Amino acid sequence: MFDKKLLQKVLAASMSKGGDFADIFIENKKAIGIRCEAGKIERIHSGMELGAGIRVLSGENTAFAYTNDVSENGLLAAAKTVSSAVQGKQRDINIDLRTIKPVVAFDFPEPPGEVSTARKVSLVEDADKSARSIGDEAVKQVIVGYGDATIKVNMANSNGEYIEDERMRTRLLVQVVASDNDVIQTGYDAVGGLSGFELFKIYDPHELAVSVARRAVSMLSAKPAPAGKMPVVMSGEAGGTMVHEACGHGLEADLIQKELSVYAGKKGQKVASDLVSVIDDATMSKKYGSYAVDDEGILAEPVTLIKNGVLEDYLYDRLSAKKDNRKSNGHGRRESYQHKPIPRMGNTYIAQGKTDPEKIIRETKSGLLIKKMGGGQVNTTTGDFVFDVAEGYLIQNGDVGPMVRGATLTGNGPQVLQIIDMVGSDLGFSIGTCGKDGQGVPVSDAQPTIHIPEIVVGGTSHDADGSEQIKQIRRL
Questions:
Q1: CA dist., res. 112 & res. 168, Å (int)
Q2: Domain ranges of the chain
Q3: 83-128 pLDDT per residue, tens
Q4: Distance between CA atoms of 367 and 387, rounded to whole angstroms?
Q5: Class for domain 4-220, per CATH?
Q6: pLDDT tens, position by position, 62-89
Q7: SS3 (DSSP) at 393
Q8: Helix/strand/coil for 244
Q9: Cα–Cα–Cα angle for 168, 174, 175, nearest 5°?
């Protein structure tokens, strides 16, 4: 616990020349990353980071400063910097901090900090061997990345609220490159969660590595994907890339207020099929985008964004909530103490339906089945998107047919949500590091198996998919 009297003094100094609200975010982070390439451990890097970010809100303006000096002098110097950016009269502020306790509690049976580096290296090496164990000469490259972080945060604000939180995140990713003459294909997958080393009791690293390798090799002999408009079944296994990119970002309140979202001004209106409900729930256990309290000290809660096709809410931080004269719903997130909070997703998903996923495939006479999504782009202002398909199959007479490669999906997010006519009873998650305004935060997204009656399927850009995957590996 940081000395409350010191924090009260720093907050008072930051508001000494005016301002409507001030807060301080102190972060103590310990992390390790391990990378294996070409059958050997290429890099192990670990470190600790300690620092504080101090912010003052004045009207719609934000003054923000950060420092890695968390001594009294260091914090007061940062407070003086932000206070000098506020135009107002000199005043004395008295703040009495009271402790707020998170309602949601997460458990970490095997804290990563208590697991030896040797054991982590062994897990990475075993995953590398597993990917190569399929015994196919087409496997040319295997990259395995492991990362974990233990973060302790202290937050206090001028409303008199003080809160502490501890977050542990662990993840593992595998990328396999296979080639046959002039054909090159890549397989990629990752698992992670707000979890310690117990993550690998939920996800088997061996199974993950083997499935990625087999997918890369199988894609070498896959047929070129057909082009044109056709029905598409997106399996729950595909994860929630579609809902995250084509819908989730457009529901973040800052983009709404800047009118940079297709969903601006549509609260209470029909924006999706009656079968579609979209939820962001940061309180879910063991998910990568989970947290008990956001990075502004707001307690996390499930937020229903779209209910039975009707737009109900947006994702808010304190500043965007203030502009709309309401309370934040706990989605102010930041990459680190060096960044100011902005509205961000946590765990975003399309809610489960009642239809058997196998029935959805059977009732699709022809089309494309997607089991894994790749990278993509979306224009939040219009909702237009282009996504690569990492693993796809033709559907022929209601059966799963041959694998195809080189497929992309092109469409408009709101329009796709409007025409979904079957929603499965399953739910599949994927993880990632979501980028926005130069910040990256851990997120999860999910969807059940869904049926889209018609969408444009076209060619793909292998470079876009591959570069995105490499970027994710480097973030470890």
A1: 8
A2: 4-220, 223-462
A3: 999 877 778 888 999 999 999 999 999 999 999 999 999 999 999 9
A4: 17
A5: alpha beta
A6: 999 999 999 999 999 999 999 999 877 7
A7: strand
A8: helix
A9: 140
